Amino acid sequence: MHTSDKQYKIGLALSGGGARGFAHIGVLMALEKFNITPNIVSGVSAGAIVGALYCDGYTPDEIVSLFKGEHFKNFARFSFHKVSLFQTQEFQSFMRRKLKAISFDKLNTPLKIIVTNLDRGISETINDGEIASAVVASSSLPVIFPPIVINGHNYVDGGVLRNFPVIPIRKECEFVIGVNVNPLKLGEYKKNILTIAERCYSMMYRSNSNEDSRMCDLLIEPYEAVDYSIFDLNHIDQIISFGYNEAMKKLDEYDKKGLLPNKNID
């Protein structure tokens, strides 16, 4: 019989990637098909949003229903300010309304949210206190959105220093499934402020994700999702399907080899 001193059997790491993060929902749907339930989740930006709702007890279908029919403008009000192009009060209100748990200790499944401490220039993990503010901080792309103040410190997008949060849970888990929805894909791009910023962020994210990618037991990267903007809320179903199809392919491959955690880890 397999024994382990690890605290958790299965960990799930969800990367940042804006609207591409809907692919995370497709992956969760695929995991359900294989009867795989993560015992801890770590998330950055979009991964923090999906991870928080999932750990709060929402099913993948219920998470989809929360965002169907929504638009970027419903979450971020344009307000050219000295620190950002948009404000995030609407998004923070949305998360506070939808989350049943207010604090991390009330979640059904343990959650770690990765943020960047702008004042100290380091990556930090938040797993206590209020969930909504941590999620918004982890999602606050610099310049696009303002820093979020938590305990007197200014926090921005966790992806600035760690966009793929595998390392924060690696030592605690026997088996880590990593979902990176932001693999860099080179090609043509429009020359405007948002797409140039988006492309720069994508390059930054990819460069700081390499070490985490190597630490996954199972790595899922839905490349088709990269064809959609990180601000695109109009193609949710397509992006979800990319995550689902890629995850099903990988899970089936691992299942046939007897490598899935529900098959060979007791």
Topology of helices and strands:
Blueprint lengths: L7 E7 L7 H12 L6 E4 L2 H10 L4 H8 L4 H4 L1 E2 L7 E2 L1 H10 L12 E7 L4 E5 L4 H8 L9 E3 L2 E5 L9 H4 L2 E7 L13 H15 L2 H5 L3 E3 L15 H21 L4 H4 L2
Parallel strand pairs: 1-2, 1-9, 2-5, 9-10
Antiparallel strand pairs: 3-4, 5-6, 5-8, 7-8
Outline the structure in words.
The chain contains eleven helices and ten strands. By secondary structure, it is of the alpha/beta class. Strands 1, 2, 5, 6, 7, 8, 9 and 10 form an eight-stranded mixed beta sheet that branches. Helix 1 packs antiparallel against helix 3 and helix 1 runs parallel beside helix 10. About 3% of the residues have low confidence.
Give the overall shape.
globular
| Average pLDDT level | 88
How large a portion of the residues is in β-strands, by DSSP E? 15-25%
Elements, N to C (H/E): EHEHHHEEHEEHEEHEHHEHH
Low-pLDDT stretches are 71-78
Largest pleated sheet: 8 strands, mixed
Number of helices: 11
* Strand tally: 10
Q: What is the straight-line distance between the termini?
A: 7 Å
Q: Return the structural class.
A: alpha/beta
Subunit organisation of the chains: single chain
Helix content: 25-40%
Rg estimate, integer Å: 17 Å
